[in-house]
Structure formats: structure tokens, C-alpha cells
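Q: Predict the bound structure with acetoacetyl-coenzyme A.
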Amino acid sequence: MRPGARDLDGFNDAQLAAQARARDLAARLLAPGTAARDRSEGFPTEALLGLGEAGLMGVNLPADLGGRAAGAVGYALAVRELAAACAGTAVGMMVTNMVAEAIDKFGDDAQRRRWIPRITKGEWPAAGFSLSEPDAGSDAGGLKATAVRRGDHYVLDGTKSWVTSGGHAGLYLVMASTDPAARTRGISAFLVPATAPGLTATKPEDKMGLRSSATTQLVLEGVRVPVADRLGPEGIGFKVAMNALDGGRVGVSAQACGIATAAFELLLDVARREGVAGREALLADSAAELEAGWLMCLRAARMKDAGVRFSKEAAMTKLYCSEMAGRVCERALQAHGTAGELAAAERLLRDTRINRIYEGTSEVQRLVIAREVLRGVG
Ligand code: CAA
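A: Predicted complex:
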């Protein structure tokens, strides 16, 4: 079932092309290896390079930078297709798009021309986003990594955590403090190539889900970063990160919808094979919740495309879709029992669990929503 693919939604050609391209690649490049990568924790290098070659690493970027100009809606459509086939590969693509967009939005022309085509044209399998630290997750403003200016460069030191595609990305967007006393207003953003001396990605975490996505720490030991590779002025790194995460949360919500779509298809298989009797609630509740979540996702994406503030809508769709996908995957597992598709249902349930945690936990989304509604936004 693809509720979002109906003509009723009024998708334009660029959006539909992004969706069609993602659907084709999902079937050919991603799906055949999903179960094996989950077992072996095999990183999907070939699949990610294929997505880059197909222009899916800059879905929302202009064509002259190697993008597809399909907007946040095109991006959501593509992510949903990819995540339904392999959520671990999808997250690598999502974070890469997030980094490319942040460079487009906050970078100067030289930075845009230097870095974005290398991301969008698939020179590297991925780009990485590095905000969290061992002691600064939800309280991202409490990060401790430092960037000290020495003439024409900065020296970065610290340990970053939960870096998607760590050890495989060609470029990292790293948030570090240039003025620790100023807290969030003292954080700056840096573009750091993976080859920078002093930067080490640790062994990937042994995760419950998204096992094909490498998640590492980044250890920064005296990493020299030219001033020209600071993204935006000093002190706006927290805003760069929050802005990127607003868009990222729409992506996570589309990813959750993709995982829920795959789980729903498993539910449909059971009902077709063994009958609907007794399974009406499983099917109906899942169909209705998936539709609601997808519409929330599209609304947040449309607001982003319209250039209006969408922090609240991004948080709402991220909160709802992550929790919704958990319920749909639970039902798929419950319905399958010991039937043949159990392994797929089990993997989907493991894969979706992180949706409630990364790019801001459900608790952080509630905090953002509560603050925004109290401020009278929306
Ligand atoms: N866009 C732009 N600016 C924003 C913003 C937004 N959405 N949200 C906040 N800001 C600005 C504020 O306006 C404020 O600016 P001023 O100093 O000029 O007033 C500044 O940022 C500080 O804002 P807050 O006072 O709201 O900051 P806070 O310390 O209270 O933190 C928070 C708020 C919402 C809890 C934030 O820390 C947060 O989002 N935490 C979760 C972090 C997160 O999502 N991490 C995920 C990392 S990535 C990952 O998961 C792995 C992966 O790659 C897949």
C-alpha cells in the first residue's frame, strides 16, 4: 500500500521522479541484501554509492549542485520507499542529505561549490553529522568538544557519539564549542574531511536495529580545520544543528512510515493467506494510523518547502510516526506468530525502535511541541 502515491496528493513531476527512482533502487539495490546485512552488520557501501549516482544524496538541492530539486516532499517520498526496503541504508542517505542541505543553507559559495557536488555525485558513500557526545545527547547544548582558533585554522578536540556512517563517510559536519562559557551561543559548525589527521572513527556499536548502518564515536585529537571550513559565523553552530534536525525529523518520520509500510504489507499477507476474521482491528488501526502519520509527514515537508517555520510540525510528525511505526511493527509480529515472515517482522520492529530515540527522543519532541504551542506557534 502506498497511500501517498495517489494522484490526489498533487505531487509534481520532480517529486514523483524522486519517488520512482527511490522505489526502483530500493527493489534492485537495497531489498535483496537487507536481511543478510542485518545479520552481518554489513555496511551498504554499494547501495549508498548507487543512491548517490542516482542523485538521491541531494534530493532537495538545486540541479546545478547535483541535486534533484524535489524539495522536502520529494525527499520524504524517496525516504519512505528506501526505508520500506532497508531502513539501515535509508538512514545513511537521510543523514547525507541533511549535511548537504546544511552546507547549502549556511555555507558560502566556495563551500557550496567545493563540498556539495562531492556529496551529491556520490564520491563518498555518505556524509556524517556529529552533534551528540557521551555526556550530551538530549541536552545537545551541553557538548564539550572544543575548537580553539590558532591563526588561519582551528584545533578540534573531543569525543563525539552516535555518528551515522562513522568510518565510511567522506565528510563530517562537526559541532564544537569555540566559546564554552556562551553555551549554545558558543557552538560553531565545522566541515571536517574523514582524512583529517587526528580524526578517528571507533569500532561501530553493536546495535539492536539498523545493524547495517555503522554508528561510531568520532575521536578528535588536535584536528586542524582551516577557518575556511567553518560553516557560518562563529557561534551559530547550535542553530545550524537545530535547523538541520528540523529537516532531519521529517526524514525520520518518513523513514518510520516506510518501516510501517513494510510491516503493514506483512499484515496484509497474513490476512490474505489466513483470512481477515479476527484481524480487522490489526489491519484497520494500522491503515488509519499509517495514513495519519504520512499526512503529518507531508504537511511538515510542505511547510518546509514553503519556507515557513516548521519546527513544531517536524516534532509532531517525528513523535507520532515513530510511535505509530512501533505499534504497526508490533502488530505484524503478533499476527505472524511463528509464520514464515517472522524474521522480517522481527527485524522491522528492531529497526524502528531507534526512531523514538535518534534525531531527538520522543521526550525532546514533546518538549519542542509544548514550547511551541505555549509560544502560540501554529
Ligand atoms: N531552529 C533554529 N534555531 C533554533 C531551533 C530551531 N529549530 N531551536 C532552537 N534554536 C535556537 C534558539 O532560538 C536559541 O537561540 P538564541 O540563543 O539566539 O535565543 C538557541 O537555539 C538555543 O535554543 P534553546 O534555548 O531552545 O536550547 P535548549 O538548550 O533549551 O535545547 C532542545 C533545546 C530542543 C532540547 C535541543 O537541545 C535538542 O533538540 N536536543 C536534542 C538533540 C538531538 O536531536 N540530537 C540528535 C543528534 S543526531 C542523531 O540522532 C544521530 C543521527 O545522525 C541519525
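A: The pocket of acetoacetyl-coenzyme A is lined by residues 91, 95, 129, 131-132, 138-141, 162, 164, 184-185, 238-239, 242-243, 245-246, 311, 358-360, 364, 367-368 (CB under 6 Å).
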